[in-house]
Specification:
Layout (H helix, E strand, L loop, with lengths): L13 H20 L14 H5 L11 H12 L21 H13 L10 H17 L15 E5 L2 H20 L7 E6 L5 H8 L7 E4 L11 H13 L3 E8 L11 H10 L3 E5 L24 E4 L1 H4 L7 E5 L2 H8 L9 H4 L18 H37 L3 E8 L2 E6 L12 H14 L6 E5 L2 E7 L7 H23 L2
Parallel strand pairs: 2-3, 2-4, 4-5, 5-6
Antiparallel strand pairs: 1-7, 6-7, 8-9, 9-11, 10-11
Helix pairs in contact: 4-13, 5-13, 6-7, 6-11, 13-15, 14-15
Bound molecules: pyridoxal-5'-phosphate.
The site of pyridoxal-5'-phosphate has 15 residues, from helix 6.
Cofactor: pyridoxal 5'-phosphate
Pfam families: Pyridoxal_deC
Protein name: Tyrosine decarboxylase 1-like
């Protein structure tokens, strides 16, 4: 309940701010020191927290020490430890000291740079840092502010937002030509591997759900979308009076890391006058290394590209880079000009007002975080960060290949390995039911608390995804986790098949 106030209520007292912030930093450092002691995937049961927390808020203030004790006691057990070195699930959301310090600055200044005048440094730093990122990824100059061709970039919180905004721009461009009543004719194309965010975004911007095409991929193209498949779908839709609108290509799909062929899809998009968006939420960071840049060949034919530094670029949540060749299309679609926000710089159209490049008005000063990460680590270390994760994934893939009970189902892409217990294992009575067996294996691994992985299903095959990218993961963690997987497999097979 807290106790009667003994101090004056002063929520931004600088002495308290400094003292309690230091306590918080020490608390977090301590969390990282002990992170390997916690079960990686939380082992709590649904509803655990409401059983232990009071159901009404405190009337009077409570000391920070008491609150942090409760965080330790009540909250940490319910965390899945995304920063654990043994976290291999989903795609990582990697953290770093610089990312954390950048978040502190962002949150510490707490400015809201929706228009240039509302915080000029926030806007200008964002434009500069977006050009820096684009240069690191060797994006074509038409995506850069400094490219002089009208392009530029913006920081969003997530790929979902970036896709909604680019879809809205594409929709309004198309409807201005064919009339607003024609929205039911517009069709969005993606593959059956594309992140569900594109389908959700299509729905949000008013595309009929029946006009979303999740085009099939197969193992022979390593789950990449082929231009031939897209061409057939577009021609068939046009024959029925529909209008192809938007194609999403992915570099590094969520399930298996597949890479869609940007050049071929780009040529097709131009032929059919379709907006091409490249989603490289996870793998975009790899473009800073020359040896991975070839996956992005053809990006010059895209209208927009996005990637998430909060996945693999040591930038704490949240941070998504979106570049667009013709930002005026985004602004046409998303701008508002209420009297209350009018100012000389905006009226003179000599500045970027990022409120017109996104869904919301208010926005965080994410640029300072990304800027801090790039400056603090430098391009050389950032490249090394990507390369060392890829090398660990190669090492893991080799270990899987050396145990003939297992197989790598889809060849490693970037730092993602998809594997399973393989069907031809002789002792198995459930030869046709390997999905069930692998599902059980995954449950056993995750229930151990010693590592956390997730799964995907491709061509009706259940695969265990081993996604490397958490900042603290080292070779020893990968090797120990592989031993864990092997021993859980041995236990499972003994349990099932030994009489
Ligand atoms: N696209 C891909 C390829 C992803 O892997 C993910 C998430 O893992 C997303 C989009 C969604 O990203 P966000 O959570 O930033 O919206």
């Amino acid at each position: 309940m807290g106790s009667l106030p003994s101090e004056v209520f002063s929520p931004l007292d600088t002495n308290i701010y400094s003292k309690e912030s230091h306590a918080m930093v020490d608390f977090i450092a301590d969390y990282y020191r002990h992170i390997e002691q916690y079960p990686v995937r939380s082992q709590v049961k649904p509803g655990y927290l409401s059983k232990i927390l009071p159901d009404t808020p405190p009337i009077f203030s409570e000391p920070i020490d008491t609150i942090l004790e409760d965080v330790k006691k009540d909250i940490i057990p319910g965390l899945t430890h995304w920063q654990s070195p043994n976290f291999y699930a989903y795609f990582q959301a990697n953290a770093s000291t610089a990312g954390f310090l950048g978040e502190m600055l962002c949150s510490g200044f707490n400015v809201v740079g929706f228009s240039w005048i509302s915080s000029p440094a926030a806007t200008e730093l964002e434009s500069i840092v977006m050009d820096w990122m684009a240069k690191m990824m060797k994006l074509p100059s038409m995506f850069l502010f400094s490219g002089g061709q009208g392009g530029g970039g913006v920081l969003h919180g997530s790929t979902c937002e970036a896709v909604v905004c680019t879809l809205a721009a594409a929709r309004d461009k198309a409807l201005s030509k064919i009339g607003h009543d024609s929205i039911t004719k517009l069709v969005v194309y993606a593959s059956d591997q594309t992140h569900f965010t594109v389908q959700k975004a299509s729905k949000i911007i008013g595309i009929p759900t029946s006009n979303f095409r999740a085009l099939p991929t197969c193992s022979s193209s390593y789950y990449a979308l082929t231009a031939d498949t897209v061409r057939k779908a577009m021609e068939s839709d046009m024959a029925q009076g529909l209008v192809p609108l938007y194609l999403c290509a992915t570099v590094g799909t969520t399930a298996v890391g597949a890479v869609d062929p940007l050049f071929e899809l780009g040529q097709l998009a131009q032929e059919f006058d379709v907006w091409l968006h490249v989603d490289s939420a996870y793998a975009g960071s790899s473009a800073i290394c020359p040896e991975f840049r070839n996956y992005f060949d053809g990006v010059e034919l895209a209208d927009s590209i996005s990637m998430n530094p909060h996945k693999w670029f040591l930038t704490n949540m949240d941070c998504c880079c979106l570049w667009i060749k013709n930002p005026y299309l985004l602004v046409d679609s998303l701008s508002t000009n209420p009297e209350i926000l009018r100012n000389k710089a905006s009226d003179a159209k000599v500045v970027v007002d990022y409120k017109d490049w996104q869904v919301t008005l208010s926005r965080r000063f994410r640029a300072i975080k990304l800027w801090l990460v790039i400056r603090r680590y430098g391009v050389a270390n950032l490249m090394e960060h990507i390369r060392s994760d890829v090398a660990l994934a190669e090492h893991f893939e080799r270990m899987v290949n050396m145990d003939d009970r297992f197989e790598v189902v889809v060849p490693r892409k970037f730092s993602l390995v998809c594997f399973r217990l393989k069907p031809k294992f002789e002792a198995c009575e459930e030869a046709n039911n390997y999905s069930k067996l692998n599902r059980e294996l995954l449950e056993d691994i995750n229930n151990s608390g010693r590592a956390f992985m997730t799964h995907a299903v491709v061509s009706s095959t259940f695969v265990i995804r081993f996604a490397i990218g958490t900042t603290l993961t080292k070779k020893t963690h990968v090797e120990e986790t592989w031993k864990l997987i092997q021993s859980k497999a041995t236990d499972l097979l003994n349990r099932k098949y030994t009489k």
